[in-house]
Write a structure and sequence with these properties.
Blueprint lengths: L27 H6 L38 H4 L9 E3 L4 H4 L5 H9 L5 E3 L10 H13 L1 E2 L6 E3 L1 E2 L10 H9 L6 E11 L9 E10 L8 E2 L6 E11 L7 E7 L5 E6 L4 E4 L31 E14 L12 H4 L12 E13 L9 E7 L5 E7 L5 E7 L2 E3 L4 E3 L3 E5 L4 E5 L10 E3 L14 H8 L2
Antiparallel strand pairs: 1-2, 3-4, 5-8, 6-7, 6-21, 6-22, 7-9, 9-10, 10-11, 11-12, 13-14, 14-15, 15-16, 16-17, 17-20, 18-19, 20-21
């Protein structure tokens, strides 16, 4: 059973609404708390009662002497930390109150699985311009009349640092600052074998994300095209997928636009239904279009309920999940990524429940999301099937990003708790070259015109 704590004055624990959109605007009093009892993006600034979660001490400066290409883990000032304890099947019940139901089930059913828990380090901050924009948003950011789209925000900044609904919390996730984009020179998307088999699906690709609202400074989201992000994705292997590529626009107010290049046909096709719970091509119906990045795409198919806050053991400061210099097959074990590459800490999270709207279908009609209060990253997500059975668990892994001065968590692992398979994606793990975040839009891939169907055809044809 999950126990939710009541927050004190410093927590500003939001009132729970059953509606899918905010009915209460932020106030000047809420804005005044940012930077005082709350961090600049709305987290509780103080430590928890037993000190397992420390007080937030301010932005942690970029690692001295680090530059792209050097080890992120070696540059981290807490790299000498040792585990405080480990959680496995023998003691999981002792820690169940700090875990999600999916985490508990995963530990109990996967022989040898363990979580090494380290001292909690609140390493996530943001640049001053993000903090300034976030404070403005308390009283000015707005959800659209449809009840789910983002109508207005000062960007880059957290739209609703004192959220009053699950919808607002999810927009905070979507609009957290990660520069103007990032890229993977080599990205593994890997699915473990079917039970009784030893054959992995291990696809490699290159991928770029572009956040057009992420440029330094201050701008109004309403003055821009209503786009959350653009992404370009091109498979390098296996042979069945090599040469296939996609250009995707994720809108803030309508369904994604997807263009897909098929090399065998030498043509680009528009894929109007390649969104939501559509299975991704090549992954045996184990991976849907809205599962990357813990949740991907528009949110209009669900009602979003802000449940409360919880102290929880989650993937954090887990540089091992981004290590490009290991051999991918050496760290992807039978049931999970090697525990030496997964780091867990205790942090406070917002809990948001998603229930599919009446008259709408989805393969996972109920979902639960656990959102880190410091970074607004989804750190755990759970999907339930149509029979109400816990089906999938996703764990994301937060790290401080030296390029941006903020945190991000693209790397995640998804466990199918019914089929006993797992998937790894959105990580530079084993890629040979580190992923890279950008704060300036100088690269051609960081322009809107790169993501058109015409350009996809031009850069994809062999």
């Amino acid at each position: 059973m999950i126990m939710f704590k009541k927050a004190g004055a410093a927590a500003i624990l939001a009132t729970v609404f059953s509606a899918s959109f905010s009915v209460q605007a932020g106030t000047d009093a809420d804005a005044a708390k940012l930077g005082k009892e709350l961090t600049p993006v709305g987290a509780e600034k103080g430590a928890n009662k037993d000190g397992s979660i420390p007080a937030w001490a301010g932005n942690e400066p970029q690692a001295s002497g680090w530059s792209y290409g050097k080890s992120r883990a070696d540059a981290w000032k807490h790299k000498g930390d040792k585990p405080l304890y480990s959680i496995d099947a023998s003691n999981v019940d002792k820690y169940a109150a700090q875990l999600s139901p999916g985490q508990v089930q995963l530990i109990k059913q996967n022989k040898g699985y363990k979580m090494d828990v380290y001292p909690s380090r609140r390493t996530c901050g943001n640049p001053d311009f993000v903090a300034d924009n976030t404070k403005k948003n308390v009283t000015t950011a707005k959800i659209g009349a449809d009840g789910w789209s983002l109508k207005e925000a000062t960007v880059p900044g957290i739209p609703f640092p004192v959220p009053h609904s699950g919808t607002e919390a999810m927009w905070n996730v979507k609009m957290k600052y990660a520069g103007v984009g990032f890229e993977y020179p080599t990205l593994y998307t890997a699915l473990s074998p079917r039970p009784g088999s030893s054959e992995w699906i291990a696809a490699t690709s290159t991928q770029t994300y572009f956040f057009p609202w992420g440029k330094k400074g201050s701008a109004q989201f309403s003055a821009m095209p209503p786009v959350e992000y653009y992404t370009y994705f091109a498979y390098k292997s296996p042979t069945a997928l090599a040469g296939q590529s996609l250009a995707i626009t994720v809108f803030a107010d309508k369904t994604n636009e997807v263009f897909y290049y098929f090399p065998g046909q030498r043509r680009v096709r528009r894929m109007p239904t390649y969104a939501y719970d559509a299975p991704q091509i090549g992954f045996e119906n184990q991976y849907t279009m809205d599962e990357p990045r813990m949740f991907n795409g528009t949110i209009e198919r669900f009602d979003w309920k802000l449940v409360g806050k919880k102290e929880m053991i989650v993937g954090y400061n887990a540089f091992g999940m981004y290590d490009p210099n290991v051999k991918f097959s050496d760290v992807t074990k039978e049931n999970a990524v090697d525990s030496a590459h997964r780091r867990y800490e205790t942090h406070r999270v917002w809990v948001v429940e998603a229930t599919v709207k009446s008259g709408v279908r989805h393969v996972a009609p109920k979902r639960t999301f656990y959102i880190d209060e410091d970074s607004w990253s989804i750190v755990v997500a759970e999907d339930y099937d149509a029979q109400g059975k816990l089906w999938k668990l996703r764990e994301g892994f937060v790290i401080p990003v030296y390029e941006t001065g903020s945190c991000d968590n693209p790397a995640f692992v998804q466990y199918n708790l019914i089929d006993n398979r797992y998937l790894v994606d959105q990580s530079s793990l084993g890629g040979g070259k580190d992923m890279k975040w950008f704060v300036e839009a100088n690269d051609p891939k960081l322009k809107e015109g790169f993501y058109t169907s015409d350009n996809l055809r031009a850069i994809s044809e062999r």
